[in-house]
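ugh ok fine here u go
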Amino acid sequence: MSQALAAVARLARRPAPGRAAAIDFEALYRDCRDDVYAYVATMLRDPAAAEDVVASAFERAYRKHRQFDARRGTTRAWVFGIARNAALDELRRRRRHAALPLEPADKVAPPLDDHVEDPVRRAAVRAALESLRPRDREIVALKFAAGLSNGELATVLGTSESNAGTLVHRAMTTLREACRVPA
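structure:
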C-alpha cells in the first residue's frame, strides 16, 4: 500500500469531527477503497497516479463529510462522485502539461481481474476498451470495475436510474461491437 493510501487509512480510523455517528468513515473506507481504486485506475491507466487520486478523494470526503446528504444517495455513491471528480481533475491536469518529446508513452494498464484464459480475447477486450469514447469507458469502469448498481451510477453521474441503465446498455453494445473480430 502506498504512503498516501496508508495515511488515508489512518485518517479513516479517526471519527469525523462533529458527526462521528453520521458516517462511519473507517467502515466506508474499508467497503469502498478497492472498488474506488479499480475505477480510478481504469480511468487513469496509471496505478501510481490512481493511488494518489484515491487517497485525495478519501481525504476530500473526510474533510467534506458534513456535506453528505443521505437523501441524495448512499455514502458509497457520494465517495464515488468525489473520486470521479478527483480523477477528472487529474486527467485535466495531465492535458495541461505537454509531454516532453523524449518521454516514452505510458502504456501501463491496470491488471484486469478477469478469468479469461485466452490472451487473444483479453487483448481484443483491452483494445476495444481503449477505442471507446471516454464517457463510455468511464461508465463501463463504474459499472464493472467498481461494481456500482444503476442507482449508485445514476447518483455519481447526476442522472436518473433508468438513464444510467440506458447508458450502460449503450456502452456495452459499443464495446461488444468493438470486440467483434472481422471474418
